[in-house]
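Renewal narrative, Specific Aim 1. Our central claim is that a sequence can be written position by position from structural information alone. The example that follows is taken directly from our test logs and has not been curated for this report. It begins with the structure tokens describing the chain, in the order in which they were read.
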């Protein structure tokens, strides 16, 4: 295994399969719906087959590593807290744990979730019955929510690169509340590079802040950054 392959494995389980799906999309062999169907066919069985809440949220590590990889999102929350939407909430475990970590830091958030997989959304509702009416099944890229949210957290791993400009614009125009904050992360990336942040900046968004945490792989870091809606591209 060469260094590039080792790094790819450290970043993403199933990276080979996702790379093939990206290649098919770029070549026009599948459309956007086909891309989502292919990615869901890859990740849904793995998530649903997990034997603990972390695995059902797509994480392969233990509780300590989950916290190391995700608790940095507390840094991205505004001190005032507010309504928090987790885009791609899977089984709702990040909603649960981040709410607790935020409370420990004196920040009150009201969690909501949206998930493209109906099966995962149903699992989230079953595991968090008190929040069942605030977890929706939808593709956030075209979703018209019943309300808007003070904080919206999203990853970009499962958004085809050509669709990211329209996706981010939709989140800002239709899902994020005025004066709200869009959080991108947590993701892992080379420590000395800001690839994703620079790609988002190039779309006209000003990065309002960023946070980092140590990754088990010495060349990588866990990262998140955020954009305040007043700084969004028009």
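The sequence written for that structure reads:
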């Amino acid at each position: 295994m060469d260094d590039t392959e080792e790094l790819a494995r450290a970043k993403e389980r199933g990276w080979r399969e996702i790379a093939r799906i990206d290649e098919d999309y770029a070549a026009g062999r599948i459309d956007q719906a086909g891309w989502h169907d292919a990615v869901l066919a890859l990740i849904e069985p793995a998530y649903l087959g997990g034997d603990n809440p972390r695995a059902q949220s797509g994480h392969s590590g233990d509780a300590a590593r989950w916290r190391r990889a995700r608790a940095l999102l507390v840094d991205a929350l505004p001190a005032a807290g507010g309504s928090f939407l987790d885009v791609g909430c899977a089984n709702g475990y990040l909603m649960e744990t981040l709410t607790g970590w935020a409370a420990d830091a004196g920040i009150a958030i009201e969690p909501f979730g949206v998930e493209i997989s109906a099966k995962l959304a149903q699992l989230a509702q079953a595991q968090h019955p008190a929040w069942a009416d605030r977890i929706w099944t939808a593709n956030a890229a075209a979703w018209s929510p019943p309300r808007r949210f003070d904080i919206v957290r999203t990853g970009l791993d499962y958004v085809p690169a050509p669709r990211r400009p329209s996706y981010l614009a939709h989140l800002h125009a239709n899902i994020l509340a005025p004066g709200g904050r869009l959080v991108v992360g947590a993701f892992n990336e080379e420590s000395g590079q800001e690839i994703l942040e620079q790609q988002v900046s190039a779309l006209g968004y000003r990065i309002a802040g960023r946070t980092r945490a140590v990754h088990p792989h010495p060349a990588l870091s866990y990262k998140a950054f955020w954009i305040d809606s007043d700084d969004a591209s028009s």
